[in-house]
Specification:
heterodimer, A: 112 residues, mainly beta, 7-stranded mixed beta sheet, 4-stranded antiparallel beta sheet, 11 strands, 0% helix, B: 111 residues, 6-stranded mixed beta sheet, 5-stranded antiparallel beta sheet, globular
Chain lengths: 112, 111
């Protein structure tokens, strides 16, 4: 069976500090991977998606970046966090049918 | 512009009662529609997924319907339980596998 992990679960960071969130998937190979952000009381916003190692597509301009150093690892980063980066960050992988996404447990980021 | 609108934004019901959540979409070309349940502070979990040819799908006490002609979907919850308290998100995918997310309906089930 497939599993998806995200860490850390919660994070409090000061403005201007760097960020690194990690997502790993087990039990599947060459998955499409996604990063979403959910602001408090809002819907999900797609940030990045990746169809393979080193292949990253960005949906919205921002001070965040993503990388995929390994097949089942997806990393969300920032060099300098902004207050507006606070939110709930979700990683998802896409199932074999091509239209089913499975979400990770999420990381709650608070920028102070 | 692709949009997914959900109603109501929030809902409070008593335990044991039924409820229906609505989702209207303007996504083209339509490929699939899925309903997710998201507990507070957790990632969304898939409840149902329907393609163009399916007009109803059940998952336990959850039943989703799809009317592709009117571009409407509903999620019916039968005999609600306290554990049903969560946000329910409607997500519509197009043929290019682009997903459009609704804002969600926040359901609270009270004893």
């Amino acid at each position: 069976s497939q599993t998806i992990h995200q860490w850390p679960a919660t994070l409090v960071q000061p403005v201007g500090s760097p960020l690194s969130l990690e997502c790993t998937v087990e039990g599947t190979s060459n998955p499409n991977l996604y990063w979403y952000r959910q602001a408090a009381g809002r819907g999900l916003q797609l940030l990045f998606y990746s169809v393979g190692i080193g292949q990253i597509s960005s949906e919205v301009p921002q001070n965040l970046s993503a990388s995929r150093p390994q097949d089942r690892q997806f990393i969300l980063s920032s060099k300098k966090l902004l207050l507006s980066d606070s939110g709930f960050y979700l990683c998802a992988w896409e199932g074999d049918r091509g239209y089913e996404q499975y979400f990770g447990p999420g990381t709650r980021l608070t920028v102070t | 512009k692709n949009q997914v609108e959900q109603s109501p934004q929030s809902l409070i019901i008593l335990e044991g009662k039924n409820c229906t959540l609505q989702c209207n979409y303007t996504v083209s070309p339509f490929s699939n529609l899925r309903w997710y349940k998201q507990d507070t502070g957790r990632g969304p979990v898939s409840l149902t997924i329907m393609t163009f040819s399916e007009n109803t799908k059940s998952n336990g006490r959850y039943t989703a319907t799809l009317d592709a002609d009117t571009k409407q979907s509903s999620l019916h919850i039968t005999a609600s339980q306290l554990s049903d308290s969560a946000s329910y998100i409607c997500v519509v995918g197009n043929a290019g596998n682009m997903l459009t997310f609704g804002g969600g309906t926040r359901l609270m089930v009270k004893p």
